[in-house]
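Translate sequence into structure tokens.
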Amino acid sequence: MKDPWEITIDKNNNDKKYFIYRNNVCDLLLMKFEYINEIFPQAFKELSGVDDVSLSSGHSNSTKSKSKDIFKLRNIFQDRFEFPEDFVEKIYGESYVTDIYNDNEIINFKNKWLKKI
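Result follows.
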């Protein structure tokens, strides 16, 4: 994948769950969102050198309620909407997907949206 920042992703390394790119303008951390809780501390440490960092799980009742609402909305959306197979194939065939995710991950995403799982 090539973008305006001229980042090239090594397709042979797409089993990784995060990628770090450095240039003279900034450092960029690209993470697979599905694994964020698992990878964030190590990825952030590698990016910044800061150790012992974690994501907040949102301890307030308001945050927990919003998280549950978002989860419910996502499930409603996924349950009620069906996308044509050619649309799903097109989306998951884009280079920004195929360069970052491995074949098994892409198959699982497609099956999920095509309701095959």
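Note: The chain has a mean pLDDT of 82.
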